[in-house]
Design brief:
The complex is a heterodimer of chains A (289) and B (441). Chain A is mostly loops. Chain A has four helices and nine strands; from the N terminus they run E-E-E-H-H-E-H-H-E-E-E-E-E. Chain A has one domain: Alpha-Beta Complex (paralog of FGE (formylglycine-generating enzyme)). In chain B, a hairpin with a 2-residue loop joins strand 11 and strand 12. Classes of the chains: A little secondary structure (289), B alpha/beta (441).
Amino acid sequence: MSMFFAFTLFLPLALSQGSAAPQPATTASAAPPATVSPDAKLEPFTVSVPVSGYKLNFAPIPPRPPLPGDAAKGIEPFWMCTTELPWDAFDVYVFKLDEPEENRGGVDAKTHPSKPYLPPDRGFGHANFAAISLTFKSAEGFCAWLSGKTGMTFRLATEDEWEHAARAGRPPTETYGFEGGAAMLGDFAWFKENANGQPHEIATRKPSAWGLYDMHGNVAEWVKGRDGKPVVKGGSYNDPAENLAASWRSPPQPAWNMSDPQVPKSRWWLSDAPFIGFRVVRENTRSER
Amino acid sequence: MSIGRREFVKSAVAAGAAGAAGLVVPSALAARAYAGGSDRLRVGVIGCGGRGTGAAVQALRADPGAVLVSMGDVFADRLSSSFAGITEELGGGGGDGAKQLDVPESRRFVGFDCYKGVIDSGVDVVLLTSYPQFRPVHLKAAVEAKKHVFAEKPLGVDAVGVRSVLASAALAKANTTALLVGFCWRYNQGMKATFERIHAGGAGGIGRVVTAHTTYHTSTLTKRPRQPEWSDMEFQLRNWWHFTWVSGDHIVEQAVHSIDRLAWAMNDRTPARCVCLGGRAARSGPESGNVYDHFAAVYEYADGSRAFHTTRQIDGTPSDNTDYVYGSDGSATINGWAPTYQLRDPDGKERWKFDGQVTDMYQNEHDELFKSIRAGTPINDGERGARSTLMAVMARMAAYTGQTVTWEQAMNSQEDLSPPSYELGPLPTPEIAVPGKTKLR
């Protein structure tokens, strides 16, 4: 199925012992096991999303040793998409644009979102705008779908991974992933003070030193919280500066889905949270064996 | 709002028990006894899809004395999943909410005639949330039986239905029974404040309203693949959005919200005529039925002013559900899902925005309905709802035929989209309309 989807992979040497040719979607487990030590330097790479051809750029995120007094183990290196996930990529998954039209109709309750009841992008913008108004389950569903299409392991970041990436190498006590504090926020983030009440095209503010855009602001991002439960990070276009801090978090709120008129309420879409999206990370190749 | 209502109900109960020492109880309440003199309001729901299930929950939350006593649907599986959903939403079988559920098997009605069973089951209030095709018939039966009604939008799919609804709305008015139509944005605090400000005129608004453009650009709706055991009728009903005879097409079924707001923006004036371009550009397969996937309607008023509505249901395209209202001294940008409630100077600078609290409009409409019933001053917005429905029907007629359709032509249209008979049997898929060929009826 995915044979006609071009992959542009700029993988490190350690990975290229197999074939850099497109990997069939269903043979992820048959891919040659790559051996990368946790401290090996990962290289950036690009994934071309099926059908749309949209290029998702992934930046390597270096490992982080355990913090002093931290019971948890450190963070293994991984790749993080440099941008929030745009509609250009999400549409293919949610509307099954990669399948023949006669297959798009079925209610595939386990793997694909229901048809959105609301205008999904709210009129804010579509191409190059972050996919929004979606639940943690939808975000995870996209990751599973993209993994199936590519044979790589995509998922949402853990809260620790996300914060580590957001700080871009600055100490864990830092609020933001750039120098200069809140005074510089407008250069790096769309937030309450400059966004005019709506999200903006992704990657239209400055990237962090690690090449990541919009970690602070634009749309809040789903991650797997330290307690294992869904949480959003990074703040959004709606939020004041303090909610854009790397450590800020919000668990799901009932108000985010207040106006869904259907019972049961959608498990895929959030009627009242147009400020929530996500970004994808790829696991270190060792776990793709 | 809901706090006030709950307090009121408590007060009413206390007044009955303790002799009303110092409590103000509208005399209309005393005049109206429900369910044998208790403070219970017995509710029945007709049409147990996701929306009917939601409406039932909202009705029960609107009034602590409301009890769901009967349910009806064409299909048994929809009814049972709906009952399960309501039970869960109210906190499970053992919770407090269970006191508001009293739907024994004997009051669960299945089939095309289910509405008769529900209406005759001793209810005070009926929720009409079945397919739009059935709405006029269900409404007529409910109003003639003197029931209070919540009727989901749209109120019908053709002019035959709209005329019936207008008669029912008038009868409800004469009987002083409630008829609240599910044009929920009329019950949204942000919308109300913004439209009130627009129509108040003067320096705080946008001057005199000149024109408006409302949009409902979105993706396609659910499609349910045909199952071998389904008859044609069942297949079409389960894919009801996609069959014009059941839904009225998406401009009538879904975009009618935005057409209602277009009417609101234009002061609920009657348009003189409508030209509408439409077509079916990105649909195929039997589940897609015979509906179009885009419309662009131009409404012209007697004074020559015009108002515009565009709607599209195509996957992978930008969505928009914004209303743009233009006045002689500024404009308004209104989008309840953003949410944006903003008035602007002629140069585009923000002049005013709504920053009050907005609560769930689907709950608000039921709160208002039950409050008005308790107060003995039942809401009836049936005529307005019927006229907004006809505005949408009028645009579909214009698009399907390619002709200019006057309000009189729409109102007097003989087009009757109901099927030859209501039974789960053969029913060919209706043809897809072709502008210039399909005749105006």
